[in-house]
Design a protein that fits this description.
Blueprint lengths: L1 H36 L5 H8 L4 H8 L4 H7 L2 H8 L2 E3 L33 E3 L3 E2 L6 E3 L25 E3 L4 E19 L12 E5 L9 E5 L23 E17 L8 E3 L1 E8 L4
């Protein structure tokens, strides 16, 4: 009996020792695992993690648009203006020939009434009227009224004897500048003795008198292509003593052609004066 009790006591002691040893082993394993997880990163890895993003990536995230697009938006005129190379173009206007409220004029493509004069065109220094006194031809060699040279003689009054009248339908007058020129602006006066709208006012330039080579449309308010020259984006307007100012961005050409297609008062076409402002090409 005593021997059995001793054996039981010895077995219990052995299990107690084994349990203690197991607990010590588990504690050592847990300590080792904890040390491994809290071990600091190697210097190279830490430096790589803390290193900021490359400058190229930062520039890509903060840049609003690519430089090429920004350069395209900077026009040649703006560049010249920043250099101070541009000056206001002085144009002498004729006296108004009518006063009061204009008669009711109907048009599906009429611009709103202007409340103030045109702002002067900004042009390079030395810009002149290249059209003054130059040869003038037309779609109708025999005007109903006037002589073709009156289109470029400097007389803008619009009174009787100061304009050229061409027949009905689409007609044009053409000015030969004498050589290739760089054009910065154009003015045209139709009859302005009364309020009226001239239809299909189109201005084109070319390198040859037959308008085959390097033809460019500078202005067009032919919104329905009734003259067959393409659909224009500009609005029709009521004629006044101010004429029509057209801004041109350095177009090179020798010949300038002015079209129209009758008016709201009659089917005829009238030209008082055409002015082309610029310089001979290559002249600084």
């Amino acid at each position: 009996m005593e021997a059995g009790k001793k054996d039981q006591a010895r077995g219990a002691a052995q299990w107690t020792i084994l349990a203690a040893l197991a607990a010590l082993a588990l504690a050592a394993y847990a300590s080792a695992a904890s040390a491994q997880t809290t071990q600091p990163k190697p210097a190279a890895a830490a430096a790589q993690a803390a290193q900021p993003k490359p400058p190229v990536a930062a520039a890509q995230t903060t840049e609003s648009k690519p430089p090429a697009a920004a350069e395209e938006e900077t026009t040649e005129t703006q560049t010249e203006s920043s250099r101070g190379d541009l000056v206001p173009l002085e144009v002498k206007l004729p006296k108004p020939l009518f006063v009061g409220t204009p008669k009711c004029l109907k048009s599906d493509n009429l611009e709103p009434p202007r409340k103030r004069p045109f702002k002067p065109l900004m042009v390079p220094k030395g810009t002149v009227n290249l059209a003054r006194g130059k040869p003038v031809t037309a779609s109708d060699d025999d005007p109903v009224i006037g002589e073709l040279e009156q289109v470029a003689d400097g007389d803008k009054k619009g009174s009787d004897g100061s304009y050229v009248e061409l027949g009905p339908g689409t007609q044009w007058v053409q000015i030969d500048l004498g050589q290739e020129c760089e054009i910065y602006g154009i003015y045209v006066w139709h009859f302005h003795g009364e309020a009226r709208i001239y239809r299909d006012v189109v201005i084109r330039v070319a390198d040859d008198p037959d308008f085959i080579m390097n033809v460019k449309t500078i202005h067009s308010n032919d919104h329905d292509n009734s003259s067959g020259l393409g659909v224009g984006r500009q609005k029709e307007y009521i004629e006044t003593n101010e004429g029509r100012q057209i801004r041109v961005r350095r177009v090179k050409a020798r010949y300038v052609r002015f079209y129209s297609n009758g008016n709201t008062s009659n089917d005829y076409n009238h030209y008082i004066e055409c002015e082309v402002y610029g310089k001979p090409a290559g002249k600084e």
